[in-house]
Amino acid sequence: MCLVTSSNVGRRVVSRRSAIKGALLGTAALPCLGCSSRARQPGAGTSTPTIGSSPFASPTLDPADRATLAEKLGQMVLVGFRGLTVEPDSPIARDLVDRNLGGTILFDTDLPLDGATRNIASPQQLRELTVQLASFATAPFIAVDQEGGSVARLSPKDGFPATFSAAQLGAVGDPATTYAAAVGIAATLANAGINLNFAPVVDVNVNPGNPIIGAFDRSFSADPEIVALHASEFVRAHHEFGILCTLKHFPGHGSSAGDSHFGFVDVTGTWSERELQPYSELIAGGFEDLVMAAHVFNATLDAEHPASLSSQTITGLLRRDLGFQGAVISDDMAMAAITENYGFEEAIDLAIRAGVDILLYGNNGPGFDEVVAFRAIDHLAQSVNEGKLSKDRIDESYRRIAALKSRLQ
User: Fold this and answer.
1) Number of folded domains in the chain?
2) pTM of the model
3) Selected catalytic residue, list 203, 331, 349, 357
4) Quick check: is 249 catalytic?
């Protein structure tokens, strides 16, 4: 039997912190062994984080005044697919070539197929897959959720380095340790040919029992200042390896008692403005990558729609009040919080009118749909033709997406 006292708990915490710091700082100088030319050594170049050159020799997107409507609409959709390789006649290749699809999201396991391998099996296989994907498109986003800890699609079971969770790093309380951990993640992604990380989570850990944030150690802290500090180090490391980041889940999922993957989540009575602090601080510091809009309902901000479908939340709060100039991506539009309350087409129209620039369909839940990209892009075109969405609104999103992709070159 192990006796638990304040003194031995304290010793274990100190020991754990020291172990994490030692493991990270002892290897931080070696993240680029075997890296591609894209993965530069941390700290190289200017002190201001910038996006580095892409490993893909792809031209930039055409400017908005030269791109066709179809080309613009394709860029506004990002989907998941099945397969460890991509052949020219595969559905995802056709989406990239024929529909100018904006990008893909990769997963290690296929949830509808009881955890079968989906897109990621080994470092070499993944690198070959990303090269294949890039060959079919102009600067596609190739994205993963690589937060660290339990949310890591590139995991040790497939031959990738182990990672620490945000909660572990926040508990250590040392920004240099978080930076070193993020260098390891970014170097791994760069080697794999991935250019967009749906991380860091900047949700404040208001409810430690939160079933999707707190329960999985995805938040750095219950203190928004600490969240902002560690998130900025995470972003800085990724930028030095040429990888875009995504702050999520706006305007805050950390206080929820439910999981928007499985249904309606209302944070009206638990959310507070302090959950905006990580966003405001990073945006004020120049962050212009992506922000992911959550499917949480917050009547304080919008009495009718969840954040991802709310103009008041995205265009009003995020863009006008906080000054965000980057691109807004939805959380997965196939989550039950959306599908149980809105139709497929209705949700698209509401999201784009609200200010979402990129519609995300992870396609890794109930009802796998290999033509979801076609359906989404086709409906966008129909809505423009019917006057439900303006061409000016489409141009706004296209310009933001093109600006991001120009930074990958």
Assistant:
1) 1
2) 0.88
3) 331
4) no
